[in-house]
Amino acid sequence: MKRMSPFNVVSLTVGFAFLYLPILLLVIYSFNASQLVTVWAGFSTRWYGELLQNEAFLDAAWVTLKVGLLSSVVATMLGTMAAFALARGGRFRGRTLFSGMVYAPIVMPEIITGLSLLLLFISLGVPRGVFTVVLAHATFSMCFVCVVVSARLSTFDRSLEEAALDLGCTPWDAFRSVTLPIIAPAVIAGWLLAFTLSLDDLVIASFTTGPSATTLPIKVYSSIRLGVSPEINALSTLIIGLVTVGILVASVVNKGALLGARNT
Amino acid sequence: MTSPWEDSNATPLIRIDKVTKRFGGVTALDGVTLDIYPGEFFALLGPSGCGKTTLLRLLGGFEEATGGHVHIDGRDMAGVPPNERAVNMMFQSYALFPHLTVAGNIAFGLKRSALTKSAIAARVDEMLRLVQLEDLAKRKPHQLSGGQRQRVALARALAKAPKLLLLDEPLGALDKKLRQQTQFELMNIQAKTNTTFVIVTHDKDEAMTMASRIAVMDNGRILQVDTPERIYQSPKSIAVASFIGDTNILEGICNWSDGESATFDWTSQSRDMTGIPGNALAVGERCRCVVRPEQVVITFDEPTDMPNRVQGIVEDIAYLGNVSTYHVRLNDGSVFTSQSMNRQPLSPDALGVNRSVWLSWPESAARILRP
């Protein structure tokens, strides 16, 4: 391998420091024994223990998990269906419009998505709570699922499905026993992505939630306004760990999917 | 034994009756009528875009005819989906299921039939033996070579013992040497399983080697349906003659014909030539005559006993080992091709470039056709 030039070494170091130093600092201070966030007083796991005693945080964590699981499942189903419609629908009327609209929420400012959903829920008279947050999260994360699954479908050999039909499958059986197993890695990657997006969303959740359902990011944000407690650091470290694992698994699974695609 | 296509009492397995297929404004098939008999190895031959694959997909149930009827085994196939047809297809890309093993691929269709588990296992073993892949049953498709994948695809398509097997360019992805070897394997398997094969190919040698009959197609129409020998020796049109092998084409005007043989005035040489009329020809009608290069004999002296002869100068010689191809320039500037076997080692002074030679061919070697 070619040796990196000093310039590259420096820019890489600075870049990574810029990205990860704040996170690293947060992780380190989550193990701080002191009550004061910015004064180091020795290593301790005390705040992790206190976090587990905090009913409000645990409730919020449970709500977040529930919202994440439900919305990611809904998003995966809708996103996969949309991807199929785009990949297989041929040149139906309004295809370009439809594909543009599926991708729009990715670039739409979250605050607008949140606001418009809030207006919709109010005008329909839907009481805000877990249900509305699940709907809102499913709405924006299905676009990401659609992108991931579309990419896989674009390299999918249609004759595999025809072969399944030819060997006696009904169209549904062909989808279940041939198409789905082959695109499964992309669907799983899309689901993990949707789940992770739901976990750390603050803006859309705060617009669409009600008093009964406080998600973890909302809880963290409101506690911060009263001052940063070391408990928040511990909680954030846990969330970082969870999200990192989720993204790592998603990329490993998706890499497998790409390798699989190359072998067909 | 008479061939089924010559026997008026034989019932065809496939009846294709005035079938038309249009994709939007494009006509892929234009009034195709064709009978295929049980046990045939039938080849659909033509350049790409001639409609041969569309015809095959119509038989498999992947396309619906715009007009006309397809009968398989006496049943009208209109509206019958692929999974309800006693027909299997081997796809050009092989379409092996990447998530299943070789055995799993072969068992896939059997699992969707009424067979018991042990019967399926026995049938899978039988198919693996047929294509000589017993040792690779547990491999995944991506661990196989191209030739092995081709055989898995064949075994999978034959596993349900279909009445009719459709093969879409089955040897297209193999290299030349493997292709020739596989041609004979396919013929053996066809004979052993006594299945009717319909194969799509653009390779005339492949069709000539394997097929009992060939349908030559172009622009969505069938130009001629015949045995390989008849397609080669008695083409019914210039298009068929020039698609099947190299040929010399002479232009002229017919001046005598009794149906069995005919003569024409070769325009560029102003000579009367004889040949066998491939179509009904009227005297005074413009015609073309095809002569295969290997039928043309080269001599130094004028062969006065041959009715068809012409003089020219050797322009170049392509030595191919077993045969040599001679390009001879005639006095009107056109180039005539002659090909002969090299039975003895060639001596350099025997037939060199720039020598004046005579070309001749018997009446039976010349087919006179409408232009």
**What structural class do you assign from the helix and strand content of chain B?**
alpha+beta
- Average pLDDT confidence of chain A is 86
Number of strands of chain A: 0
Low-confidence stretches of chain A: none
Shape verdict of chain A: globular
* Helix-strand category of chain A: mainly alpha
Number of helices of chain B: 8
What does this structure look like?
The complex is a heterodimer of chains A (264) and B (371). Chain A is mostly helical and 264 residues long. Chain A has a single domain, classed as MetI-like (MetI-like fold), CATH 1.10.3720. Chain A has helices at residues 6-29, 46-53, 55-88, 95-107, 110-124, 130-154, 158-166, 171-199, 203-208, 216-224, 230-263. The relative contact order of chain A is 0.14. Chain B is an alpha+beta fold. Chain B is 22% helix and 35% strand. Chain B is built from eight helices and 20 strands. In chain B, the strands form four sheets. Chain B has a six-stranded mixed β-sheet, sandwiched between helices. In chain B, a hairpin with a 4-residue loop joins strand 17 (323-330) and strand 18. The radius of gyration of chain B is 25 Å and the shape is elongated. The mean pLDDT of chain B is 89. Chains A and B meet through helix 7 and helix 8 of A and strand 6 of B.
